[in-house]
Structures are given as structure tokens and as C-alpha cells.
C4-dicarboxylate ABC transporter (Geothermobacter hydrogeniphilus), 330 residues
Amino acid sequence: MKKKLLLVSLFAAVAMVVTATASFAAPIVIKFSHVVAENTPKGQMANKFKQLVDERLAGKVVVEVFPNSQLFTDKKVLEAMLLGDVQIAAPSLSKFKKYTKSLQIFDLPFLFKNMDAVEKFQQGPYGQKLLRATEKKGLIGLGYLHNGLKQLSANSKLVVPADAARKKFRIMSSDVLAAQFEAVGALPIKKPFSEVFTLLQTKAIDGQENTWSNIYSKKFYEVQPYITESNHGVLDYLVVTSSEFWNGLPADIRTEVKKALDEAIAFGNKVAAEKAISDRQKIIDSGRCEVIELTDAQRQQWVDVMKPVWKKFEDQIGKEYIEAAVKAND
Ligand code: SIN
């Protein structure tokens, strides 16, 4: 009897220790690293995600957001993710070349006529399949986030493709973007986002391509006297995590984190649509640079010169994906 009592007390003591340990367990930390300013679609999405997790998973999960390349550049962030040094990021879809060739589709010039077509393709079967394109390399795509259509900025007027010849343009680390600028006789230079302002300011490069919100929030318009409203390509993001981190989360926490992410992405997409209009207007109102609107005939010249790039990358991307993207414009 005495032995039995002793055993019961021992079990009770162990149970108490286990419970106490569990309730004092350190929260799961999610570091979210990105390269843009906080007043951008991605910056706002990341902050919204943090706010939702703080409200719903207090004490269990902590989100730390690092904007403006404070923690990692986009070149480093995916390597850091695989090492467990960061848990969520949302690099531009142009920056996954090392992990998959198929996401290059989003860099093809003049593929989508507007952001509705981009959304339709991303949410359709081919877009959803592409979310899994990096899984073999240990990265899971959790969703797409919009920024918007890209414009060309330069230190001289770009009206027809010949105006870009021999000019140096900063591009993201994408071979498709390199081919796009080579098609107009320009010199593409791959550089991190964090260096673009200085490169433009010091005239080490002549121009760059980006969305209205990035041009505004990083003040590129203050050092580029001309912006051509070309809408020639899309800059969107893959919200990404490592398989190791994601699959290691307790199932209930993973469900809640994904729910918060989905809501934050929907919020970020709304911000993106608003900023494409409001940041464009702020740039015009600043009087710091001229925004050039192309006639249909001028724009068609850019299309004619750049569109042959599609054929070059068709095998790497998959013809059926490109056809599905074209159909999303209907
Ligand atoms: C970003 O929007 O995350 C950066 C885009 C760029 O590198 O131009």
C-alpha cells in the first residue's frame, strides 16, 4: 500500500513538472525579413500579420518583422531560411532562380494586361501548382502577394525602345529581366534593392524598373527625372517559409498562423491596389519628375521588341504555363 502511494505521488509530481514546463515553454519566434519600406504593400502585409498573430496567439507565437533589408538582402534571405535564421520572407518572384526555373514566368514582359489577370492566373490551377515549385529545395510557398505593374525610370526620356539602347538598367537577379533589357540594346545590371537609390543618385546606372510604390517609398523619383508608364511587367511576391520550420509547427498553431497569413495577404493586396494609384499621384504631384504616358503605337514598339524573350524561356518555364497566363487576360 505504502509503495502504491509513493508511486501515485511520484506520478503526480512528474505530471506537475510537465505541466509547469509546458506552460512556461518559450513562444515560437517567427522572424519575417523583407527589403522594402513599411509603407508599402509588403511592409503593411508583414505588420498586419504580426498584429493578427499578437492578437490570436499571444504567449505562443511571437512575430518579429525586419523591414528595409535590416536583417537580410533577398539574395541571402532564402539561404538564411534554410539554415533556420529566418522563418518567413516574401521575396519578389524574380528572385527564386536558384530554387526553380518555373517562377520565371512572372518576369516575361507584357504577359499580363493588368493585375486582375495576374490574380486570375495565380489563383488558377497553374498558379497554384507554381506555389509548390520550390518544395524540392526545402521551401514552401504559402501564397502570392501583389505589388503591381512595373514602370521604367531613367535619367533621359524613354519613349521608344531605341531610347533605352546602351543605357545601364539595374535589374533584380533574373535572367528573363536581363534578356528583356538586352532585347532593347540596354545593359542590365543585377544589384540588390538596397543599393538602387545610391546607384541612381551617383549615376552609376541610368535607370531601373519598378512599381509605383517602390519608386515612391524608396525615393527613386527624386533622382530619376523621367518615368515611363510602361506597365511592361509584374512585380509580385512569394510568401515563403522552410519546409522544416513549417512542418515542425504544432498542427493547431500552423492552422492559425496560415489563417493570419491569408488575411494579411488579402490586406496587403488591397494596399497594393490603392498604392498603385496614390503613389503614382504623389510622384506626379511632387513635380520632381515627368511621367511619360505612351501612345498605343509607342507601347506596341516596346511589345514588339521585348516579346520575343518569351520564346527563349519557354522550355525552362513550360509552354502550358505561358498559355494559361495568356488565357488569364481574357
Ligand atoms: C521588393 O519589392 O521586394 C524589391 C523589388 C526589387 O528588388 O526591385
Observations:
- Confidence is low (pLDDT under 50) at residues 17-22.
